[in-house]
Amino acid sequence: MNKVIIIHLNGIAYHVEEDGYEALRAYLDVAHRKLEGNPDRDEIIADIEQSIADKFRALLNPHKTVVLTAEVRDVLEAMGPVQGEAAADAAPNAAPGAGTPGPAAAAPAGTASAPKRLFRLREGAMIGGVCNGLAAYLGADVTLIRVIFALVGITFGAGVLLYLAMMIIIPYADSAADVDAAHGDPSTTDEIIRRAKQGYYESLRSIRDPFTRRKWRRQFKREMRQHRRDLRDNLRRSLRGWRMYWHPEVPTPPPAGAGWWFAYPFIAVVNVAVVALCIGAVLSLVLTGSVFGVYLPATYPFWLQILIVILVCRLLAWPMSFMHQGYYGHRWGYHDPISHLLHTLAWFAVLVFGVWFLDHHTRHGHELVMRCKYELEEFAAQVRDWWAHL
Amino acid sequence: MSLNDNFSPIRKGLLEFLVLKVIAAEKVYAADILTQLGGTEFATQEGTLYPLLSKMRREELVDYEWKESEAGPPRKYYKLTAKGEAQLRETNQYWLKISETVKNLGQRPAQQSQHVSP
Predict the structure, then answer these.
(1) Which of A8, A75, A79 is the best mutation test for B, with the most CBs of B within 10 A?
(2) pTM for the full predicted model
């Protein structure tokens, strides 16, 4: 399985394997550098992109929608290296004083804002560097991102899962280039690709016949629309499949009993109160370092303190949410607590299987599980200490 | 160094002349130029041709118009300018002179020596 990247070449979208994308990017980067100072640089590069796009299109059909890395390399091989003006015009002795508009010409070009890539950043990380990387990606303050994550974690419980998922999916920025990319690197190729998209309209302008121009513009729009529609349809179809799988038939809710109408507002109010309490506790911890004046052991790392607060709050809310689920489940066709319990167990099994799968089949997952084990042992040791000192 | 490598600078220098020749015959797309040169010793690639065409356009030897192709978006359709035609004529004459020289250079002393000996 390989990651696929969507690129635009003169206005048409192509799916390209990640390594192929890198090769393409490197090729265009070199082309860009070779043509430095050439007044027709953008035009030549647009021509070259068009030509690459044609070659890509010849490789694709309705049953094959991705350009493979080997194919990208073959296409670039066929294109040949882009010859700079100096190389084509002879002048083998590039005298130092003769023509060096390089740095001066490069300066104004480098001001365009560069695109970024999402990485986890080790430097200054608290857990896995997810928040750190996100902050660099969004250009926001790390603390703000952390607080948002903590809040999402409390209120929906999904924040923790989200964090774990991102920890597994997003790679660490291992090289200096990656770190640059996480903060936004000044490479020019993505800028070219973005321009190429616009370039289509601009090149249309040079067609003098208004009828032809209209026709091409219509076709371009149609293609882009079709592309978007396909994407949406695919998404919807897979979502529907997912839903069908988990809920083969959604039973119509039976009429609610009197108990339901009494219990529901009560449970809801208590739930809201617990959530509010939880948010308050975490905010208090973040802002003053104590939970409403109660200090947690200073030996615990900050993130663990937040986690403890969240866990305690969830424990408080648990019976409520169980009742809520029970009633909710009753409304949706669970007539006894046993099936509710089974449902919970099934979910638990899926979760355990997921963790087992990640542990055995992905490197990141394995590292994560090992780390969790280590942290749990640390935590247990600290609890034992704390108990002994009591 | 093979013969092929020896003549590489000459082929490079002649490329512009040949492109002029191809475009002079009829209006073409860049891809047509590549196909026509493809079978010959002067086979070249997009990476070389596009910068060359752009240079020639800047020197007003060729010009292009946008024209739709059978598949995909409109393409550049190249034609020669008056200046390009003049340049082609000039280059052609020069080329004929050169090839004449190449053909005759070794033969004249031989002919002379033959002429003198009896």
Answers:
(1) A79
(2) 0.40
